[in-house]
Design brief:
two-stranded antiparallel sheet, 35% strand, elongated
């Protein structure tokens, strides 16, 4: 319940690594109406130099390198088509004659 003696406010916080921002907003009928006050507190350093950052970086680099290790392509495996004897991808219809598993699977012009 809002009245003249008991106004309603909302406190907004923005927490960063090197600063803390805040704002007090007055409400009228439950909706933001005015900015009452705002401020910021900046800190010299969010984290001690040399602590925490190196481990995170090395872990991230290790994960990245592990992902990249699987980027290489494998050579395409080709087998001769039993119908026309041209090379084709295994378990696929032949692009030359359209046969797969001893029958015409795809009509080729």
């Amino acid at each position: 319940m809002e009245d003249a003696q008991n106004p309603q406010y909302v406190l907004g916080l923005d927490l960063g690594t090197n600063s803390l921002g805040w704002a007090v907003i007055g409400l009228v009928d439950g909706e933001p109406a005015q900015l009452v006050r705002a401020g910021v507190r900046a800190f010299e350093a969010g984290m001690d130099e040399g602590r925490g950052l190196g481990r995170e970086e090395s872990r991230n680099k290790a994960r990245r390198d592990a992902r990249r290790a699987n980027w290489k392509l494998s050579p395409l495996t080709l087998t001769p088509c039993p119908q026309c004897k041209k090379l084709r991808v295994p378990h696929h219809a032949c692009q030359n004659c359209g046969y797969y598993d001893g029958r015409e699977a795809v009509h080729v012009d």
